[in-house]
Amino acid sequence: QSLPQQKLLTWLSVLECVEVFAEMGTARVWGEMGRWTIIVLIQLAKAILRLLLLLWYKAGIQMSPPIVPLNREQQQPLHPQDTEDNSSGKDQTYIGRRSSRVVRSLQSTPSLQSRHWGSPQQREESQIRRAEEMNQPPTPLGLQETIAESLYITRPLLHLLSLGVWGQRSWKPWLLSAVLDISSLSLLSDLKDLNRRERAELRRRTVLLLYYLLRSPFYDRYSEGRILLLLRLLADYVPGVGFVTRPLMDYLPAWQKIYFYNWG
Length: 264
Hints:
Layout: H1 3-56, H2 72-75, H3 82-88, E1 93-95, E2 102-104, H4 120-134, H5 143-166, H6 171-188, H7 196-207, H8 218-237, H9 242-257, H10 259-262
């Protein structure tokens, strides 16, 4: 990735990290008008950055999060003394004569904090495989796939526009957003030879379609009573589950009021 593309990904990641805080803070200070203003500005900025990545830098299917969090355990070497052991010619493994099982030698046993239960070869292979997956270039998108990804990127803006036109209680914004999401996924489903991260992203988008059961007005008219009844039954009749379901029942109304939790 080029330096400008990395900067765009960084800014996009920052926006996704602070969007909920910005919405809640602006609502507390400037009220509903300020809240919806910051929502529109953040969604507009995210759409512009994603469209630049898609159309200018050919970044392919947009990932979430844009920058993969660093896994420090995977970045650690097998053992701090690996280099010294290799240079001195010490064997890191022992192969059993009868079982042919690979066992770590005592000289190459790492400290307890960095110890793992696989052989050094298995860990090296997994690290190499993950590095190759991370370094795979994005799958080139044709015209149909580019349109599908553009629909997914611009869907929040079109949803906000429809909310301004028809109001928050209308079914039209809900239906428009659902149609755009399903259309984008159906057009991208024909794309072959996706890498592992892209397949995981499409699965994540498919699972997120369940959010439409929790989004107003569908939630207010159909889902709310059934979900609260199910949570209440679980809390009353399943031992130990109430520690999770009762706080969830109290949290759902507050969650419903935050746009970036259920629509962003």
